[in-house]
Amino acid sequence: MKWNFPRWCLNPWLHTSLLFILPILLASALQPWLTSYSMEKRFTQDLDNIATDFASGLDGFEQRNVEQAFAELSFSCDSEDIALLNSPSLSPAIVRFIQLELADGRQCSNIGPPVHYQFDRFRSLFIDSQLVDIATTVAANDRARSIAYIFHLGEQRLVVLTNSSVYNETLSTLCHGCYQLMIGYQGLSSLERGVEDLLQTQTFIEDSRYISVLDVTLTLRAGDELYWREASRVGIVLFISALIVAFLAVIFYWNWQSARVSMGMLIQKGISRKEFIPYYQPIIDCRSGEVVGQEMLVRWRRFDGVLVQPNQFIPYAEDSGLILPITDLILEQVYQDLPQLKGWVSVNIVAQHLELGLLSQWFSSHPDPRAKRISFELTERKPITQFELALAEMKAVTPLCHDFKLDDFGTGFGGFSYLQRLGINSIKIDKMFTDTIGTQDLKGAVLDAIIAFGRESQMDMVAEGVETQAQVEYLAAKGVYQHQGYFYSKPLAFEDLLTFYQNLSNKM
């Protein structure tokens, strides 16, 4: 089936608009998923950081501060003791107040007069062999409640009340207005920090961490605010990335479009200047060593003398349809060379040559009998889509030419279908299969199958890419006698081909 797209579908400006819009649409589609993923990842990282800071806060205070300060306290509540209680070593940011309570009932704190506090629950815990009582203060709700750590120093004790605002500031620093933290010591009243009212109409996420050294569970909650913050951040990154991709895609497209236009113009100029010329690669019968034919291979020698490689223009020429006027130009030159050529000459054609009836038109304007020596090799890079037209053209042209060959058999679209439906009785074995001779390549079995099929079907077979004596002998033993490849000759310009003929005659 042949697809005929409306002309507006081929408009470069439409392509440009699509290339610009599609990355943005894709980014919009990905944003909710990426936002959820980013939110969960950030939430987990923040919870891990909170748990680490929480554990290291008390542990570090007990290890680095209390043990050192204990040795310096005189336990008299004099000015030196009060100064020490006010020092950063015993009053870091996490401490709201610290109070020394002596056995004789005297008390002193870092904020001056003794502080009267009231605990609703407490329990004992060993932290690095240090007995510590943990308590929660009496309060109206979980947000107002604080934690106290009571260190026993013989008959004296040191009471440390934590600063709840530190946790609020930590949560706010991580994400302002995003988090609510529940602190639950085993056997104590729970505490709540962070946002008082957590909006969760859009999303809600909750997870916990247990800190064994303190026997405390931290539960972090987040809702809409974290989601919208991540949505904004992810959206900005996606939008900028989408714009970059869109601009790069448009730039690449227009460079490609310009290259196509430039290539098309160069090829058209090359056709008008007759820069496309035939090269011939001899096809040898290995039994006699004689030339039985040659394949014509188009070459592009530009006006400035540069020889353009076939793979740089043939694919574009086939896609754009410019291969048709190139073939017309080359056929005319082959026709002029025929009187001096030996055997038949194969010319590559594409499906359009058959579907459009171009070969019969050419023969009608070249009734000379020498045209009967021209053979056509049907390439399969583009499939035949209108078989009835192709078959009719082949029936009209077959009596006028040497034959039709299926090029690169086994590698293209049609293969056996082309042989059956088009009635082709000559195949060319692709170099890909010839290269497997003498190797362990699994395609070697395919080569043997192709040869067996050709012999069974009484096909005329030509092996391409013959480069070694071992390949010559293997193919000959299998009954494939017509060889083409560098073992005999590379593709030659017309004058060089005549020299090759002469040298070959001298050897025989």
DSSP strand (E) fraction?
Answer: 15-25%
Please mark out the parts with pLDDT under 50 across 5 or more consecutive residues, or reply none: 1-10
Largest sheet: 8 strands, mixed, barrel
CATH class of the largest domain: Alpha Beta
Shape: rod-shaped
Mean of residue pLDDT?
A: 86
Q: What is the structural class?
A: alpha/beta
Give the strand tally. Answer: 20
CATH topology title of the largest domain: TIM Barrel
Q: Please give the alpha-carbon distance between the first and last residues.
A: 53 Å
* Total of helices: 14
Q: CATH H-level name of the largest domain... which superfamily?
A: EAL domain
Supply the number of structural domains. 2
Question: Strand order within the widest sheet?
Answer: 11-12-14-15-16-17-18-19
Describe the 3D structure.
Helix 9 links the parallel strand 15 and strand 16. The protein is α/β, with parallel strands linked by helices. The two termini are 53 Å apart. The chain contains 14 helices and 20 strands. It folds into two domains: 10-228, no CATH class; 273-507, TIM Barrel (Alpha-Beta Barrel), CATH 3.20.20.
